[in-house]
## 1
Amino acid sequence: MSTILVTGGTGTLGRPVCERLRADGHEVRVLSRHSPPYAVDLRQGGPLLDRAVDGVDAVVHCSNILRGDKEAARRAASIRRRAGVPHLLYISIVGVDRIPLGYYRNKYAVERMIRASGIPWTLLRTTQFHDLVLRLLQGLAKPPVMLLPKDVRDQPLEVTEAAARLAELAARPPAGRVEDMGGPEILTFTELAHAWLRATGRRRRLVEVPLPGRVYQGLRHGRHLAPERAVGRVTFEEFLARRLGP
Ligand SMILES: NC(=O)c1ccc[n+]([C@@H]2O[C@H](COP(=O)([O-])OP(=O)(O)OC[C@H]3O[C@@H](n4cnc5c(N)ncnc54)[C@H](OP(=O)(O)O)[C@@H]3O)[C@@H](O)[C@H]2O)c1
């Protein structure tokens, strides 16, 4: 049995990571801004962070810091280095190095920081989780006409499958960058929207809109996809049936 710290352990990914680690018999410490006894804002650090990393066998870094992620990673890495953390696992996104989105650039910078930190590390990149695609579609469906990015596809992945993989990796020695993980199907946003409309019984007119810019170009070329690593099993339709079903 190991002691494993999960940062962002209350989030979409962090929660099932903690559940899986506990089911596998590990002792889990959960860190987030609102989860005592390790209620830490990683952008600020502090003595609780030192205490959280003290004596752990691994840190699974699942927090999602929208602003200040690089600074938080730098601070956390220096504490982990001082504390001699034997294994740091980082979850990243397929295409962070290929799509010039600000959030992706930050994540890619954090990846590079971890590689250079001197802490033994494992890095897993995945495609988007079903939950994120669902939230996107719910947002796009607010007006009566759903405007969808033309020719953009996605490969959503069941978050519990990503969590199981991370938990498995956390119990092994540091592995560097491991193989990417993608969902089982690649679907256009229009196909995803149809699936959501069918599952919810809603009606919306769908209009595909071409967008300008290099981010859109990257998405259109599928640089955020991992077709050769379509290892996830749960499809978006199955996810919707479970999430929205009776
Ligand atoms: N969503 C996706 O489709 C996807 C795909 C691939 C990779 N990822 C990566 O997976 C990771 C987790 O994403 P997620 O979707 O699970 O995020 P999420 O649901 O938004 O959860 C974020 C977690 O981070 C904690 N957190 C946020 N700011 C923090 C701070 N300043 N200090 C400490 N904890 C903080 C939150 O708890 P508090 O609010 O209590 O602090 C929460 O536990 C991210 O690195 C993301 O880039 C996500």
## 2
Amino acid sequence: MRCPFCGTERDRVVDTRSSKEGRAIRRRRECLACGKRFTTYEAIELVPLQVVKLDGRREPYDRQKLLLGMVTACTKRPVNLETIEAAVDRIEEKLEEQLEGSQSRRGASEIEGAWLGERVMEELEEIDPVAYVRFASVYRKFQDVTEFMDELKGLSGGEE
Ligand SMILES: [Zn+2]
């Protein structure tokens, strides 16, 4: 990125986060020449992202569904919503990196459900051991990120 202050193209990224809707990545950068900081926004996806299920069917990526699945796994655990939101942000950032690598090759905006499931497991493992085990047990049964999210919703209903 070209520094808007001095025009140098060498910088380092000091902070990266996705926008609330996951439609843009905001990067805070620091120019290596003059030390000034500036922000860049990179549009992510215009084509709706599709999640590929194990049986080959596709469904649109749904941030809310991912978030709800993780919130449900954390039911009655000392985990606040901000922590889970931040985890989903990180997953979406990895998702964009993954897509950048695969897009030119496949020409489509798709992600394997299993890949998404693995990222959720990684995040939950860091966040809360009980939530991780809950999620993992359902995930192993289904091996499908979209269906096990639905199953998780059922689990929370049963606890009432
Ligand atoms: Zn500069």
